[in-house]
Amino acid sequence: MKKVLNKSRIQNAKSKTTAQQMGRKELLVSESGTILKKWGNKIPVCVVFPNTYYIGMSNLAAHILYKTLNNYDDVVCERCFLEDNGECISIESGRPLKSFECVFFTISFEMDFINIPKILRFSSISMLSGERKQDNPIIVAGGICATSNPEPISGFFDLFLMGDIESTIPDFIEKYREMRGKDRDEILDGLSRFYWIYNPAKLKVSYKEDGTIEAFNPEDFTVKINRYAGKSLGKSAIIAERTEFSSMFLVEGTRGCPSKCPFCLLGNTYKFTCDKILPLKTDIKDIGIIGGGVSFHPHITEIVRQLKQEGKHVHFPSLRLDEIPLSIIELMQDEIKTLTFGIEAGTEEMRKVIGKPLTNDEVYKKLSAILGIKPFNLKLYFMIGLPGETMEDIEGIVELVKHTKHLMVKEGAKKGFVGSITVHASPFVPKPFTPFQRFPMNDMDELKSKVNLLKRAFGKVDNTYFTHDSVKYSFIQGVLARGDRRLSDIILKFADGESLNKIMKDSAVNLNFYVLRERDKNEILPWDFIKGNAVKNIAMSASGGHPL
Ligand code: SF4
Questions:
Q1: Which atom of ligand 1 lies nearest, measured to the CA of 260?
Q2: I want to staple 233 with a disulfide (CB 3.0 to 4.6 A). Which of 9, 146, 275, 287 is the partner?
Q3: What are 461-485's pLDDT values in tens digits?
Q4: CB 184 near ligand 1, within 6 Å
């Protein structure tokens, strides 16, 4: 499920422009909750979100990390983002990254890998960890993408924190405090002793002639994920106006998701945990409840009811159609104009394959009931290029949306208003540590023809809009998601602004190798040395149809 809250697009676009134009000091004035500490002899650390302030401050991991690090009296933690003008200095004191002792990147999107060398170069820090000098900060990575497959970016980082902030940062800081002032390599060695720290310099990888991995050296090299076992999840540390979720108090309602859809990284790598959310200590009126599994929270209706009684406006990410109770939609109908659902596939058979086994009738029944409450606008998310998908599955998307439109007109006629439908298609990108991790992606031509079919079909349906992720962008994401350490040079080329076409033409590395190939069940995967995530592999059927 995507993190889309029900806020006006126009308002968001305006905020984005303003954030880019604003200086650091103006941003600080527009925030509340910022932690400003005197440096003195404190350990200076920086949280880096490798994208803009507008996107980064909407990411709860950045808030949790900032708050956790600032909770230590002897640590001063600031934030840094990469603005479109290439600037990258800390928000709080305007210092360059070089001034800090430890720099923590939190990485939630594969495409942000490309921004990492840009940030290091702007900060005059060697991009490659092996070339760093004694006085350079220790450059650390964490976050869902960095921990599921750190290999493509392993050359840029000294260390990876393989686990949750709550379960790794306290030990990391304690150890760093103990070793502060020692030789840089000695500190790295000391920190690397934790079972959940990955130091890429300690692992060598050899390859076979066909390009697949031959062996890890040492052969028994492992790093284990350290998951947080508590139930108190994240909350906004700072209320920021100039962000995607402008001036909203964000609460991490759930972490992980019990549905474990076989394409979903979040559902397959985190243990499902629910925060009790209440009582919520904030004066902010707009509350965003974040988490892929929010529709599965056992107390979500009572929580929303209580928040409404307190006069709050509650916002959600996209919801799971089969799980979300109608009572929640009834409760929130006054403040919501648009509802977002991840339907993901157009046919019943394909939905079964991806773990969302709703029949068409069940989809229509639930949508009718929802539209009977109020003529909402709908945003429906689909994936294209799923394993075993045929053109019938794509045509199924068109049929399903047309039928939904018909229901909308029928229900809307009773109320004198008919909403709109926005259909969004994203190419399926296989992710590590998911049951689909060994599957190929569709090639770009196939994806383009599917996009074109949908574009043509929806161009003829009234009041229905079609948007899609760029096919090229998804291909690059596919390369980065399941790539290995040989991709550092490719990432550097992207960071230099080279086009995909030029890279594919000139580079010795064949990018199709990472994207279009089905991995044999015995093939060693670049992330196989990471333990602690159980993955059920799914085989393709012999006929090449839907996965078995
Ligand atoms: S596992 Fe499925 S339902 Fe849960 S967050 Fe992922 S895609 Fe959404």
A1: 1
A2: 275
A3: 889 999 999 999 999 999 999 999 9
A4: no
Q: Judge whether 25-224 and 337-548 match in fold.
A: no
What does the pLDDT average to over 147-171?
Answer: 97
Pocket test for ligand 1, best of 2, 259, 351 (most atoms within 8 A of CB): 259
> Which pLDDT belongs to residue 348?
96
Give the per-residue pLDDT at 534.
61
Map out the domains of the chain as residue ranges.
25-224, 337-548
pTM for the structure as a whole: 0.92
The Å distance, Cα 319 to ligand 1 centre, comes to 10
DSSP 8-state secondary structure symbol assigned to residue 374: -
Q: For ligand 1, what atom is nearest to the CA of residue 295?
A: 3
DSSP state of 226: B
Torsion sign, CA atoms 162, 47, 186, 228 = negative
Atom of ligand 1 nearest to the CA of 355: 2
CATH architecture of 25-224: 3-Layer(aba) Sandwich (3.40)
Cβ pair 196, 509 in contact under 8 A = no
Residues facing residue 540 across a β-bridge:
547
435 Cα to the center of ligand 1, angstroms: 13
Helices (H), 389-443: 391-415
Band the pLDDT of 540: cuts 50, 70, 90.
Answer: low
Indicate if ligand 1 lies below 6 Å from the C-beta of 423.
no
Q: Is the CB of 293 under 6 A from ligand 1?
A: yes
SS (H, E, C) 361-375: HHHHHHHHHHHHHCC
The class of domain 337-548 in CATH terms is alpha beta
